Amino acid sequence: MHGYNKTLQYLYQQLPMFHRIGAPAYKSDLTNTLALCDILGNPHEAFPSVHVAGTNGKGSVSHFIASILQEAGLRVGLYTSPHLTDFRERIRINGEMIPRTVVTGFVRQYQEAFDRIQPSFFEMTVGLSFSYFKQEKIDIAVIETGLGGRLDSTNVITPVLSVITNIGHDHQAFLGDTLAKIAAEKAGIIKAHVPAVIGETQPETMEVFIRRSAEMKAPIRFADRHFSLRHSQHNAKGGILDGFDILCQGREYMCSLESPLKGSYQIRNIITVIQSVELLKEIGFPITSDHVSRGIRNVIQNTGLMGRWQVIGRDPLTIVDVGHNLEGIGYVVLQLSDLNPDRLHFVLGMVADKDRKDIFPLLPRDAVYYFCRANIPRALDQHQLAVEAHGAGLHGKEYTSVRKALAAARQSARRDDVIFAGGSTFVVAEVLTRR
After folding, report:
1. Domains along the chain?
2. Can you tell me the distance from the alpha carbon of 385 to that of 387, in angstroms, rounded to the nearest whole number?
3. pTM of whole model > 0.85?
């Protein structure tokens, strides 16, 4: 095998990738990951880690925590998924993507093992990240789960802190058809005697986490019971999150934090982050209030985060967001309503294995829709999407690609309109790739 592009081609073609093909790539146990880690010398045991799971917000929370740890002067590995424009986004150290030569060298060295073990794309990537982090002698890693928790490939680690942002309706075919069942799968990342943070207190799931933490003798904190945010500045148009104060059990904790991630839903994530950082400080990590404020403010430049209420154009305002499940789309729609545009142009694409019946009623009926299909096998055909959406009272035209749909929206939109592109991570990825 020669060269980075051929290496990527091998990975995409030979190793099943859930985000592209869905269920056939899902592995229901940790056997392959454990076997691969054993071949690699169990590199995940060489560094402490923070493990982050949840239905929504786990990517943002992972990036915020990594950014704060970087501001504290630590060498921080960050593993997240999926990527948007470059495979190497998944594996970073202090914001720098893994070098192409490391990816190519790893695959070349262990291709024989891959052929024998037959790992999924995700399992291979987890092994690559652990190996690279050990090689580079990082101080700590922030590891985001892929799907679920208990059986997720990342769950071979024993972290110093487990974080679960929230529980929502996603991947129900694999994780369960109730919030309590999904929570039980996510709670699988809670390890013996390892403190755990739960970002949002939810009646359907609280007892699941309390029971799991008791079984594991793991201290547990529900972040929203200890912290809250109060706006110090707020641009009402768009619910843009500029500055805010943190309240800790009724007392002022820190003032004038600013977030470059402008979605108002980030309030929940930042509360989760603050609680996580407090526990990391208790464990002994040298984090100050200044590190926290700088880490939040500098999260994009420190970690390269993209796709969270990201403004990609003005006049008309054009926004992308990777929210794609029931709760994520709900957050997006609420924020779009705050914008109060003259007219909303909605570039919409979805994956075929997503349960859509509860999502369509959330979407604004007065928007103009541009139904499209992302360039992946899992993508829902744009005609089927349009037919189903029309049945729910949503109207627009069909486009064979994200590029054509966005171009049509830009041609139709006036200066005071808003263009939004989303519904699937892959729609956002194509928009960002083709800018």
Report:
1. 4-303 (3.40.1190.10), 310-433 (3.90.190.20)
2. 6
3. yes
